């Protein structure tokens, strides 16, 4: 075999031609082609079917982790990915994913969690309305927060009784965040009843179906997600400043709902500010007197609240003396 034929064989193989095709074209045996490839140090040992299968599986490990943390069982993962159970477990262990015990795996999800109205459930409704994400293509419900507020994700996980992992990562902008995700078709359907739907930012509806006695809990949850409490320094430098309770929303109806609810508790309405842009943002801000009253009505016996935000609220309340009645 002359050198020109050998070079053509090497070129054909490195361009993707199979050994079977090459030997047919040049009327050679399988071993003749292999000898040429060996002569030019061209690796040609084909991967076994098992090796190719494992390689494909490992390329889908992020998908596997997502499936398992959203509630798919180990057996369902084995069936979907077509590998042995030990290989599923290996990927989960290598990525620090808690493998649910038999007791955890067999625990029935409380599918009626968002049907049974109470203070804690109403808080979670408001929090998801402000800071949650409902998947459009699946039944996944996700809450992502700054890592400094990790404690509330543990509270939420304990509240709904779904022991999926809380995951941690750093965004491309360098922010450390944590995320809790679960999957339940019934939960997704019930959240829609309260106006919480996929792509809800500009489509969020009022929680009409929520009993009025739980409206403050809903607002506390919404405030924990999209509100702030601040101390505004006085321009003349006197005193410690003024208190400001503020919340914003891309949905004007939610802001009006908060104003109307507060008015029932003797807190006067304030004007709605509009920050214009491609999509307007609606903002309300209350003064020192109202901010104190809001604290008194917003927190009750429920332990569902963002601890960092409540602590900050109490700290700045202590800095500003209440107005004395004459």
Characterize the structure shown.
By secondary structure, the chain is an alpha+beta fold. It has 15 helices and eight strands. The strands form two sheets. A four-stranded antiparallel sheet has the order 1-2-4-3. The protein has a four-stranded antiparallel sheet with strand order 5-6-8-7. Strand 1 (132-134) and strand 2 (140-146) form a beta hairpin. Helix 2 (19-25) packs across helix 3. It is elongated, with a radius of gyration of 30 Å. The N and C termini lie far apart (111 Å).
Sheet with most strands: strand arrangement:
1-2-4-3
Measured on Cα atoms, how large is the radius of gyration? 30 Å
Shape: elongated
Give the N-terminus to C-terminus distance in angstroms: 111 Å
Q: What's the helix count?
A: 15
Approximate helicity band: 40-55%
Average pLDDT: 86
Topology as H/E string?
HHHHHHHHHEEHEEHHEEHEEHH
Question: Helix- and strand-based class?
Answer: alpha+beta
Q: How many β strands by DSSP?
A: 8
Uncertain spans: none
Q: Estimate what percentage of residues fall within beta strands.
A: 5-15%
Let me know the largest β-sheet: 4 strands, antiparallel
């Amino acid at each position: 075999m002359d050198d020109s034929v050998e070079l053509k064989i090497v070129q054909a193989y490195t361009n993707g031609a199979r050994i079977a095709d090459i030997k047919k074209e040049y009327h050679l045996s399988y071993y003749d082609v292999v000898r040429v490839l060996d002569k030019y140090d061209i690796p040609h040992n084909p991967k076994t079917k098992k090796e190719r299968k494992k390689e494909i599986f490992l390329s889908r490990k992020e998908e596997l982790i997502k499936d398992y943390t959203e509630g798919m069982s180990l057996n369902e993962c084995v069936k979907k990915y077509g590998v042995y159970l030990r290989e599923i477990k290996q990927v989960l262990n290598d990525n620090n994913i808690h493998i649910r015990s038999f007791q955890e795996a067999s625990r029935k999800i409380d599918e009626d969690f968002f049907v049974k109205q109470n203070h804690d459930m109403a808080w979670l409704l408001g929090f998801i309305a402000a800071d949650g994400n409902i998947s459009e293509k699946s039944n996944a419900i996700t809450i992502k927060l700054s890592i400094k507020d990790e404690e509330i994700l543990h509270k939420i996980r304990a509240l709904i009784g779904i022991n999926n992992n809380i995951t941690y990562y750093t965004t491309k902008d360098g922010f450390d965040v944590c995320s809790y995700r679960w999957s339940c078709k019934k939960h997704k359907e019930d959240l829609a009843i309260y106006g919480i739907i996929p792509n809800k930012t500009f489509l969020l509806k009022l929680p009409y179906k929520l009993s009025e006695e739980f409206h403050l809990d809903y607002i506390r949850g919404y405030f924990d997600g999209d509100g702030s409490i601040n101390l505004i320094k006085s321009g003349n430098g006197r005193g410690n400043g003024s208190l400001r309770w503020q919340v914003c929303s891309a949905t004007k109806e939610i802001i009006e709902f908060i104003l109307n609810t507060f008015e029932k508790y003797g807190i006067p309405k304030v004007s709605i500010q509009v920050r214009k842009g491609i999509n307007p943002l609606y903002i309300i801000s209350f003064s020192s007197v109202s901010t104190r009253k809001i604290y008194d009505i917003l927190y009750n016996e429920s332990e569902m609240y963002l601890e960092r935000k409540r602590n900050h609220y109490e700290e700045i309340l202590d800095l500003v003396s209440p107005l004395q009645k004459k």
